[in-house]
Specification:
alpha/beta; Rossmann fold; about 15% strand; globular
């Protein structure tokens, strides 16, 4: 029998079943950790991929207290798990742990974002990744949306906004960031411009910060490039990377409604909300009324999970099967 730590012994039946001796080879175990984590869709989405790939792997949930992130990393090593998905509040803590140690590493994206949402056990070496940005790009690709050279406005500079901004700039987009904490947005913009600085005249990507304070107080806003009049029509893609519109928190709000008449969504826009519950947020509902193309947050959630499965198995999972499994979950209906 395997000796269990405090985070091994969870109240979840499926977790005990797979951690007890004889039920499953521990080298085939994956987990999603968080606090809370019982609501996570990751196990059902990822297990769909494992089954479709005919792999004898199983993902379970592990509710890990805030101060126990180090134990979670040790659990991967001790049970020889294939990997781990990481949700709040552990993304930064896991990144900090994996940034030090001979047997740990961070990929360049996770290192920049200082956040890990996927840990892969690569022949005994634990490597931290951040697949949120890749999940976003995969979701857009699924809808036939091209990011390269597109002009994108991102509302929010938190963890999700940072990941999306990084991925879009890396893919060749022109990105503008609007965030209530303007200093946070400007720091992100400066760091992105430093990372992706190039002397190539054909490289059209750029990163800007829009002043929320100016925009909220007047019809005019100034940005880092001296543009005085804010024109939403200058953007191709609008992305909500805030919690506005989320079920149980700010369901009746959106980035546009907060700023009232200062924005007008147009039919030309592609409007994306990273919130996946509800499936159609106020932001998306308003955009639909304007005739814009809308994309909810679920495809990104599935996309980042698909990228994690590929990192763990080396195989390309069936994105559509994963998505259909997610859509049919009761939490979203």
């Amino acid at each position: 029998m395997i000796l269990m730590s405090s985070i091994d012994r969870q109240r979840l039946p499926e977790n005990r079943a797979y951690l007890d001796e004889g039920n499953i080879s521990m080298s085939r175990l994956a987990a999603v950790i968080g606090n809370p984590v019982h609501h996570s869709l990751s196990p059902v989405i990822v297990n769909t991929a494992f089954e479709d790939l005919s792999l004898p792997f199983k993902m379970v949930t592990l509710e890990v207290p805030d101060e126990k992130a180090k134990e979670a990393v040790e659990l991967i090593e001790r049970l020889n798990m294939v990997g781990m998905s990481v949700t709040m509040p552990h993304k930064k803590a896991i990144a900090d742990i994996l940034s030090a140690g001979n047997n740990f590493a961070l990929d360049k994206t996770a290192n920049f974002l200082e956040a890990v949402n996927c840990v892969a056990n690569e022949e005994g070496k634990l490597v931290g990744y951040n697949t949120d940005g890749q999940g976003f790009l995969l979701a857009l690709s699924r809808e036939g949306v091209v990011v390269n050279e597109s002009s994108i406005l991102i509302f929010g500079a938190g963890g999700a906004g940072r990941a999306v901004a990084y991925a879009c700039v890396e893919a060749g987009a022109k990105v503008s960031i609007l965030n209530r904490d303007e200093e946070k947005a400007r720091t992100l913009v400066e760091n992105l411009n430093t990372i992706f600085a190039t002397s190539n005249a054909k490289d059209t990507r750029e990163v800007k910060c829009i002043s929320y304070k100016n925009l909220a107080s007047t019809n005019l806003a100034s940005d880092d490039f001296g543009v005085n009049k804010f024109d939403l029509g200058a953007f191709d893609i609008l992305v909500n990377a805030t919690s506005l519109g989320m079920k149980g928190i700010n369901v009746d709000q959106s980035p546009v409604s907060i700023l009232e008449s200062k924005f007008q969504i147009l039919p030309k826009h592609i409007v994306i909300d990273l919130v996946y519950n509800p499936a159609e947020t106020k932001f998306l509902a308003d955009a639909k009324k304007s005739g814009a193309k809308i994309i909810g947050g679920l495809p990104m959630l599935v996309g980042q999970a698909a990228h994690a499965v590929k990192l763990w198995t080396g195989k390309e999972p069936n994105l559509e099967k994963m998505f259909q499994t997610a859509v049919n979950q009761p939490i979203l209906n």
